[in-house]
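Quick entry, no commentary yet.
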Amino acid sequence: MFEHSLSLAVADAIATATLEKGQSEGFQPLTVAVLDDGGRLKVLKRGDGASVLRPEIAMGKAFGALTLGMGGRELARRSQKMPGFMNALSDLAGGLAVPVPGGVLVRSAEGRILGAVGVTGDVSENDELCAVHAIEAAGLKADTGDPA
């Protein structure tokens, strides 16, 4: 079945599974944002004990991935190689793009971008692990910016 958009039910399931994965792994309290393919917030969940700016960071990780259509790992690599471009991107996006791991594109089975998940609270690699787990548990493809 071809998915045309990320439903609220699926976005909520991804957010819940992300937090549950973090808890089961013993990670620091996580916050997760799920955006649709237009960069609009579908679901935001802030785990108990998560610090104050975590919602903005989670949204920035997801928005950064959507902005250039690539996962946070590739954005981080490009940020190292092209800091001027990434600074300009941040300025153009009103400071909303956070180019680090933990921003994961959500793709359909056919590869279409349906949205993005941003996770923050632990180290970026653990944030990303939780997002990937949840996206795949929802039957969708996770795109971290690294080859599969």
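second:
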Amino acid sequence: MATKKKDDVFAMTSFDPSKLSDSIRDFTEKGAEQTRDTFARLKTAAEDTAKTVEVTVETVHAGSVELGLKAIGALRAHTESSLSHMEALLGVKSVSEFVELQTAFLRTQVEATAEQAKTLQEATRKLAESVVKPGKEAAEKAFAALKVA
């Protein structure tokens, strides 16, 4: 019996080449399928990214136009106010009237500038949020897809 055990240890296992071919074929097919799946996910991610970039560019454009219009409006208001003030100064008859007009003008200009700054700041904040939102959503979607995969 000792010799039989010794023979078993050194006995050549039966080697079936057809099973090796089947294993290689299965391995290759699984690899190709995984590659197709990965490519499909990458293609979807690239398309989503392109859409996100397009939306972001459109948002930035619209927001910058809005900010530009607000800035032009502020400049127009300031210019009109300055011209009105200059007209009023032309009719001044005394130094005290001049000081009174100048003080009132400066006060209204400071108040108007503060209000315009608030308006521009709020518009800029909203623009920044709307620009960041699509990218944030796309990143969250991508990370969720990675977790699933």
